[in-house]
Design a protein that fits this description.
Two copies of one chain form a homodimer. The first copy, chain A, is α+β, with helices and mostly antiparallel strands and 272 residues long. Chain A folds into two domains: 2-108, Aminotransferase class 4, branched-chain amino acid transferase, N-terminal domain (D-amino Acid Aminotransferase, Chain A, domain 1), CATH 3.30.470.10; 116-268, D-amino Acid Aminotransferase, Chain A, domain 2. The first copy, chain A, contains eight helices and 16 strands. Chain A has helices spanning 18-22, 40-54, 61-72, 116-119, 146-152, 200-208, 223-228, 256-264, and strands at 2-5, 8-9, 12-14, 25-33, 36-37, 77-85, 102-108, 122-126, 161-165, 171-174, 178-183, 186-190, 215-219, 231-236, 240-247, 250-251. In chain A, a hairpin with a 3-residue loop joins β14 (231-236) and β15 (240-247). Chains A and B meet through β3, α1, β6, β7 and α5 of A and β3, α1, β6, β7 and α5 of B. Chains A, B: Homodimer. Chains A, B: Pathway: Cofactor biosynthesis; tetrahydrofolate biosynthesis; 4-aminobenzoate from chorismate: step 2/2. Chains A, B: One of its GO terms (molecular function) is pyridoxal phosphate binding.
Chain lengths: 272, 272
Amino acid sequence: MKILINGEPGESISVLDRGFQYGDGVFETLAVANGQPLLWDRHMRRFFHGAMRLGIQAPAEGLLRREAEQVCRGASRGVLKIMLTRGVSGRGYAPGPEAAPTRTVGLLPWPDYPATYRTDGVNVQFCHTLITRHNILAGLKHLNRLEQILARMELKDGCAEGLMQDETGHVIEGTMTNLFVVSRGTLLTPDLKSSGVTGVMRGLVLERAPALSIDCRVTGIKRENILDADEVFLTNSLIGVWPVRRIDSREYPAGTVTRQIQEVMRDATVAD
Amino acid sequence: MKILINGEPGESISVLDRGFQYGDGVFETLAVANGQPLLWDRHMRRFFHGAMRLGIQAPAEGLLRREAEQVCRGASRGVLKIMLTRGVSGRGYAPGPEAAPTRTVGLLPWPDYPATYRTDGVNVQFCHTLITRHNILAGLKHLNRLEQILARMELKDGCAEGLMQDETGHVIEGTMTNLFVVSRGTLLTPDLKSSGVTGVMRGLVLERAPALSIDCRVTGIKRENILDADEVFLTNSLIGVWPVRRIDSREYPAGTVTRQIQEVMRDATVAD
């Protein structure tokens, strides 16, 4: 583990940092292969957009890139986590004039998911914990993650991921993944205008699917649409594409669309 | 400023603490007068309830009390802030088995609100930032505070507080206060079942109002109900009771009910 805090190697931050006090910041997690973070430009676009939406002054991209290269150097694979908070200020929600942003750039261990998750697929469940709608933070990868944590804590043994619904019954995403379903030959993924995180891998799937002659639509998806679907898969920047083998008692094949998408995303993911 | 981190004087926490990584924790802020935190039992009830809802192992109350007395000793007035996070664990929303909670107990400076806020009242505005509904975290004072921060950042010069509505047009609370309105002799405060923080001072007002022969009701309150109201006031543990003098262009008198409530809350608040 190697972490730079505002450019200096470190392991601790001020207890008064607004990241700790209020979750006042954004983050990115990138897959690292052969010393290089993958999909850098896409992650940076979301990162700078998030910082702008929260009104936090972002560092220059070149600075982040140099720090990322410094921590990733020599790593055959790993996870690059970049965080930006509004920094240290006095108590109270209003940021003080003295607050200067805190950035952390760290290389963390590669998660040890079984290789079979990608080849054979995963078991998934529906979570009871709802994801809120009309969220001003929709789309952003921000530091307020309690809904996802509570949903994640529901997972039964043997379940690799849980799906989160909003109070209208729309399924939005997994706790740490975006959701895709294949229904009568069309690839569908939930609309994230009012909740959720617009995943970098999700964006890339949506861009590349048309070249495979796969019809693709961003839309509202309910639980019954998922249970009726022909194929289901999950994405994020670390896992790439996981076929879903089972949701509760419904079983799915790892179908041809999922395999095509896995194949075309190979350059953007880290091999197991 | 005097802070104990897991019982030891300190100023920094691990960058891997889940409080910093995800806002995974709860907090309390108590007024301190003459070396003593006010309304300790009520704050502790909410604190332990919040920890339980998040599944975080809380420390013994006696230990917190001793630490609180240690940091508050000799302070004529101040703010006691107690935080509890799920502690340090590896990356990912699932808490690792190694996570041991982090507690911080700190004395922070008394906020320098003008004394006229309590005597003459404050100017308030409606915020555009919505507060989400159907929030599994409703009622808790948790560390995911981005909605409140974004709302707070909207405040115009001269506005001491902003009111937050949900997407159905119900006004839930201020960014850092609970809301009361007096309408045809009845005291009303918003229902917090689906959003908001159940303030300790709010609870005490609801308990004490009946003894003053003031009818009291927890209910849905919309913007028009507030603009039609006879009196409006705001509460929290630090400010006590602030009359609202103006919301946008509507002016209010600091009416008799507000004055009665201020008077009966005097023992529970810190004098300016």
